[in-house]
Amino acid sequence: MTYDAVKHLKPSEFKRLCGVPLETVEAMMSVIRQVESQKPPGRPSKLSFLRPIVDDMRI
Q: Given this model, what pLDDT does residue 56 score?
């Protein structure tokens, strides 16, 4: 499953599926967005910045 597929679930269902609250995932994504915006220009990454979070949660 992708994050887009599960982000519309109720908070209790999201936590049951992923193991962490939706607010925690949103906080992790905001930190990763900040880091990504501060990276120097260069070749773009082949993976999206959400991929590490999704891989860790095994969605």
A: 64
